[in-house]
Specification:
2 domains, 7-stranded mixed sheet, binds NADP nicotinamide-adenine-dinucleotide phosphate
């Protein structure tokens, strides 16, 4: 539901992959906006972006720039959020931040509305709400109804993540490499990814920590425990960047506390908010990254029981990382805060 009140809205990172999707989702939802103030880097200063038939100038961040804004959506990376997020809150804005800067801060809510949106009901304002990592969001939407109905014992997830998750320069890097290789040219050395991504799979997203996991894996494991309020959940993630343009796919092994039937699994997932089940093996029906791009739901398919452990179920979870994994989830948070 769009807010009843007309709001003054700021977007930091408006020229980025997530920033542009913010504008698309706000428009599609007919989000009531009075003033729209768009921010990007110095490189974009004085350029304009069209929104609802009007041309909007791009501003750089400077002291006092958030004055009068009710809501500021940040998607410009950790350092910018760390520096400017608290300034927007101090100026009286509600901030929804897409970066990882505040997600694991115990003082800051980390929210997926279908899972823990209720924690925002009594939150003191102004405030900053962290939007989780894209791979975490789709995972917890799929896990929540199973946790609520049957209890969770353990989760294992292997991800197949698209290049759009790394921003606009990452999309260009894949496209340029593909173009070069298909034209028998040598591709340029990679700048965004640690290896060539075209026709490849890279088992590293972010930097490695001492525990042998990369930052994306640690984000999925830690953020899932926080959002689901299951601090002791046994969860292990293995993340892989694939040469897909958009949408992240996840193979998930979920061990429940109860033994359930496939009918119970289907009924529970089909009736859960934000989920669309596509599961018909005889017709090869299951979600794919290409097909779900541009769509809102978290798609679940290939739901089947582990023959080695009747408490464990496998499922394939796919969602648009720019949409539910970023812009849509952030705007759903804003809708919860401005009913
Ligand atoms: N892509 C995803 O699936 C996804 C999902 C969840 C969260 N996120 C997070 O969202 C954030 C943005 O991701 P993205 O994929 O949209 O990246 P992106 O496509 O690379 O866009 C980055 C944006 O930040 C702006 N920017 C850079 N320096 C700036 C500065 N000094 N002041 C103001 N704006 C500045 C850029 O403006 P210019 O065009 O002027 O350079 C651009 O608008 C990151 O924190 C990312 O981790 C991304």
């Amino acid at each position: 539901m769009s807010p009843a009140k007309v709001l003054n809205v700021g977007i930091v990172g408006a020229t980025g992959v997530v920033g542009k999707e913010f504008l698309k989702v706000l428009d599609q939802k007919k989000f009531p906006i009075h003033n729209l103030k768009l921010f990007a880097s110095l490189a974009s200063k004085d350029q304009t972006i069209e929104f609802r038939g009007q041309s909007h100038k791009l501003y750089v961040l400077e002291e006092g720039c958030f004055q009068g804004l009710d809501l500021v959506l940040f998607s410009s990376g950790d350092d910018i959020s760390k520096e400017w997020g608290p300034k927007a809150v101090a100026a009286g804005s509600i901030v929804v931040d897409n970066s990882a800067a505040f997600r694991m801060n115990p003082e800051m809510p980390l929210v997926v509305p279908e899972v823990n949106g209720d924690i925002l009901k009594n939150a003191k304002r102004p405030l900053l709400v962290a939007n989780p990592n894209c791979s975490t969001i789709q995972l917890v939407v799929a896990l929540q109804p199973l946790a609520k109905n049957f209890g969770l014992n353990a989760v294992r997830v292997a991800s197949y993540q698209s290049v759009s998750g790394a921003g606009k320069e990452a999309i260009e890097e894949l496209q340029n490499q593909l173009y070069a290789l298909l034209n028998n040219q040598k591709p340029q050395d990679p700048k965004i990814f640690p290896h060539q991504i075209a026709f490849n799979n890279i088992p590293q997203i972010g930097s490695f920590a001492e525990n042998g996991f990369c930052s994306e894996e640690n984000k999925i494991m830690n953020e899932t425990r926080k959002i689901m309020n299951l601090p002791d959940l046994k969860i292990t993630a293995f993340t892989v960047r694939t040469p897909t343009l958009n949408s992240h796919s996840e193979a998930v092994w979920v061990t429940l506390k109860e033994k359930v039937t496939k009918e119970q699994m289907l009924k529970t997932l089909k009736s859960a908010p934000g989920i669309l089940v596509q599961d018909s093996l005889s017709e090869s029906v299951y979600p794919t990254a290409w097909a779900v791009s541009g769509q809102d739901p978290v798609y679940v398919g290939r739901i089947h029981q582990d023959p080695n452990d009747p408490y464990t179920w496998l499922m394939w979870v796919v969602s648009d990382n720019i949409r539910k994994g970023a812009a849509l989830n952030a705007i759903q948070i804003a809708e919860t805060l401005f009913p």
